[in-house]
Amino acid sequence: MILMFPSAPDLYLDISDRIEQKIESLLCHRSQLGPEVADWVRTWDAENGTKIGVAYAEACRVIRLVDN
Length: 68
Description:
The structure is a single chain. A three-stranded antiparallel beta sheet has the order 1-3-2. About 35% of the residues lie in helices and about 20% in strands. The two termini are about 15 Å apart. It is α+β, with helices and mostly antiparallel strands. The longest helix is centred in the middle third of the chain and has 14 residues, at about 35-50.
């Protein structure tokens, strides 16, 4: 399981080739998000990208579920 927007991410995924698709998808939710979301996402994901040396990255937290 992967948790998005974690306070302590332990996985960064390169989304450089999908950043515009991500923004377009978010903008489809007009009743919840305004056009300013594009600038926010680019800023956040660019900051995450610097951590792994890419233009844009998604920060995640991996949660391993164990069946006992």
